[in-house]
Design goal:
- The chain is α/β, with parallel strands linked by helices and 455 residues long.
- It has 2 domains: 285 residues, FAD/NAD(P)-binding domain, CATH 3.50.50; 142 residues, Elongation Factor Tu (Ef-tu), domain 3.
- The protein has a 6-stranded antiparallel sheet with strand order 10-11-12-13-9-14. A 5-stranded parallel sheet has the order 6-2-1-7-16.
- The structure holds flavin-adenine dinucleotide.
- Flavin-adenine dinucleotide binds next to α1 and α10.
């Protein structure tokens, strides 16, 4: 066994993982290919460079990402420490000065006596020792090919094509009907939003006029033919959608006994049925336009979006098929995945998976029991999504309240709690369970860096 843990990728997840390891006394070799080789989005040689926005999103505890950040702070996250040191005013969001943020992390990592940073591209998974792969959404080509060997070709993806997800409680259930295509009974897993001819035509027109996010140069792939954005399909002809993802065949509206002119189908995204995915609606529409246009669909007038649609260049694995709850590969448990490549989406989520992979790799190195945070916490909710989502439709996901188990003992009356109050209770539950987990599993007892101080 090697006398160090290898971390591949010095982005958000890799930096956090290295810190968690070193702060538990475990030597780390951190490989980062920049500045020798840049990804199409990174511009510097600094660790933890933010490739786009400088916002880590809401700081409110009643927002799921606000809770995730608070949990990270309590777990002594380096990324959170850097964010709080480099904060710039941004209202309810936590935004950072990206230069100060990345410099802070680079210096902390470089000056830690147990971390050696090596600026080289890794082309193959090391043949032995404990390894954390945190090479991100723009993993270098050669390394990705090698990683596929471990995950299986079919479970490694280079692009995501994400359809929006809405909260079940925001659907107008009076206007939709449950039915699976060609099923005889009126019940089914799918929820169907029926459109009349006029509604369909208005919807297509709005889709065509809506503002889109342009593809970056490195994102213009041939592959999109197989998974076209909904607005591109609409450009091919007024009826294309009606013969594609909005086809009504085999779906009788029980209220009219007839097939609607067109339908939008919603598929449950989780076991609790708190989230629904707009089937086939992958899109490059701007987020605000998605709200405006998709709320024209009958039943979705007041839809609240847990996730917006998007299409990105993104390397990620089909986590429910390849990962354990500890973030180890099922086939090769000495290898952990962390960050966006593990199947989460976003700066904060990627960092959080780096944090957990770092804790668990440090435990494996020291032959300790590995740990999984409770599903009621934001960290645990992400792990649950990674390992329990339907592998047939798995796509990367931001943290959102729909991934958490509902509040226990929810009576009809309690169901009607104002949203903010419900989220406040869920956040309280999460922080209580996190504290218990930290105590019971002795998560921080071995953390030897000074919080906020030098290594
Ligand atoms: C263009 C783009 C814009 C994005 N914008 C946002 C946004 O605004 N907000 C948001 O929340 N999320 C955004 N994301 C999503 C995602 O959260 C970020 O990409 C985030 O940085 C992911 O963290 P990570 O640690 O997994 O990967 P990264 O931060 O990308 O880190 C991976 C690191 O691995 C290195 N690397 C890759 N291959 C190798 C190799 N073979 N050997 C050695 N090093 C290697 C890379 O150089 C990189 O430094 C964006 C993603 C992309 C692609």
């Amino acid at each position: 066994m090697k006398e160090f843990v290898t971390v591949i990728g010095g982005g958000l997840a890799g930096s956090e993982a290295s810190w968690q390891l070193a702060c538990r006394g475990v030597p780390v070799r951190l490989y980062e290919m920049r500045p020798r080789k840049l990804t199409p989005a990174h511009k510097t040689g600094k660790l933890a460079e933010l490739v786009c926005s400088n916002s880590l999103r809401s700081r409110e505890i009643t927002s799921a990402v606000g809770l995730l950040k608070e949990e990270m702070r309590r777990l002594f996250s380096l990324i959170m420490e850097a964010a709080l040191k480099s904060e710039v005013p941004a209202g309810k969001a936590l935004a950072v000065d990206r230069e100060i943020f990345a410099t802070y992390i680079t210096e902390k990592i470089a000056s830690h006596p147990l971390i050696t940073v090596i600026n080289e591209e890794v082309k193959r998974i090391p043949a032995e020792g404990i390894v954390i792969v945190a090479t991100g959404p723009l993993t270098s080509e050669e390394f990705a090919q090698d990683l596929k060997r471990l995950t299986g070709e079919e479970f490694f993806h280079f692009y995501d094509a994400i359809a929006p997800i809405v909260y079940a409680e925001s659907i107008d259930w009076e206007k939709v009907f449950k039915a699976d295509r060609y099923a005889s009974s009126g019940e089914g897993a799918y929820v169907n939003c029926p459109l009349t001819k006029e509604e369909y035509e208005r919807f297509v027109e709005a889709l065509l006029q809506a503002e889109k996010v342009p593809f970056k140069d490195f994102e213009k792939p041939k592959y999109f033919e197989g998974c076209l954005p909904i607005e591109v399909m609409a450009e091919r002809g007024r009826d294309t959608l009606r013969f594609g993802p909005m086809k009504p065949v085999g779906l009788k509206d029980p209220r009219t006994g007839k097939e609607p002119y067109a339908v939008v189908q919603l598929r449950p995204e989780n076991k609790e049925g708190t989230l629904y995915n707009l089937v086939g609606f992958q899109t490059k529409l701007k987020y605000r336009e998605q709200e405006r246009v998709f709320r024209m669909i009958p039943g979705l007038e007041k839809a609240e979006f847990a996730r917006y649609g998007s299409i990105h260049r993104n390397s990620f694995v089909c986590a429910p098929k390849v990962l354990q709850k500890t973030l180890q590969l099922q086939k090769e448990p000495r290898v952990f995945l962390a960050g966006q490549i593990s199947g989460v989406e976003g700066y904060v989520e990627s960092s959080a998976m780096g944090l957990l992979a770092g804790i668990n790799a440090s435990r494996l190195f020291r032959k300790m029991k590995l740990v999984v945070p409770p599903p009621t916490t934001a960290h645990g909710a992400l792990i649950r999504h990674l390992t329990e989502a339907d592998p047939g439709h798995f796509q990367p996901m931001n943290i959102n309240w729909g991934l958490f188990p509902p509040l226990e003992g929810r009576s009809q009356k309690r169901k009607k709690l104002p949203k903010k109050e419900k989220y406040r209770l869920m956040a309280e539950r999460a922080l209580k369970d996190l504290t218990l987990w930290i105590t019971n599993e002795k998560i921080l007892d071995d953390f030897i860096c000074q919080k906020g101080g030098a290594g």
